[in-house]
Design brief:
Layout: E1 5-7, E2 10-12, E3 18-23, E4 32-39, E5 46-51, E6 57-59, E7 67-72, E8 77-82, E9 91-99, E10 105-107, E11 111-115
Parallel strand pairs: 2-11
Antiparallel strand pairs: 1-3, 3-8, 4-5, 4-9, 5-6, 7-8, 9-10, 9-11
C-alpha cells in the first residue's frame, strides 16, 4: 500500500522561502505520477505542480517562476521549493500520487503553510 508523508510546512514572512518534502515508499516514481496540490480555507483544492508523461512538469499560473517541483529517486522523496512567498500562498499543501495504470489517487496528510508578517 502507498503511504505519503509530508513535512516542511510552517510560518514564513512574505518574500520568504520554504521547502516541502514528500517521502514515498519504495520505487513509487515508477508506478505513479507525483504532484503537489493545495487548499486554502473556503477554497477548492487546486493543482500547484506535478510531473506528467515524459517527466514534463506543469505549474499553476499563480506559482510559475516562484515554485519548483523536483524529486530525488535515491531517497524516494519529492520536493516543492517555494520562493518569493505571498500571503495568498497560505494553504494546506498535499502530496499526491496517481497510479499510472489504475489511476487511483493517494494523498498525504497535508502540511500547513502560512505566509504572514
Amino acid at each position: 500500500q502507498v503511504q505519503l508523508v509530508e513535512s516542511g510546512g510552517g510560518l514564513v514572512q512574505p518574500g520568504g522561502s520554504l521547502r516541502l518534502s514528500c517521502a514515498a515508499p519504495g520505487n513509487i516514481f515508477s508506478t505513479h505520477f507525483m504532484g503537489w496540490y493545495r487548499q486554502a480555507p473556503g477554497k477548492e483544492r487546486e493543482l500547484v505542480a506535478r510531473f506528467t508523461i515524459g517527466g514534463i512538469t506543469n505549474y499553476a499560473d499563480s506559482v510559475k517562476g516562484r515554485f519548483t517541483i523536483s524529486r530525488d529517486n535515491a531517497k524516494n522523496t519529492m520536493y516543492l521549493q517555494m520562493n518569493s512567498l505571498k500571503p495568498e500562498d497560505t494553504a494546506v499543501y498535499y502530496c499526491n500520487a496517481e497510479h499510472k495504470l489504475f489511476h487511483s489517487n493517494v494523498w498525504g496528510q497535508g502540511t500547513q503553510v502560512t505566509v504572514s508578517s
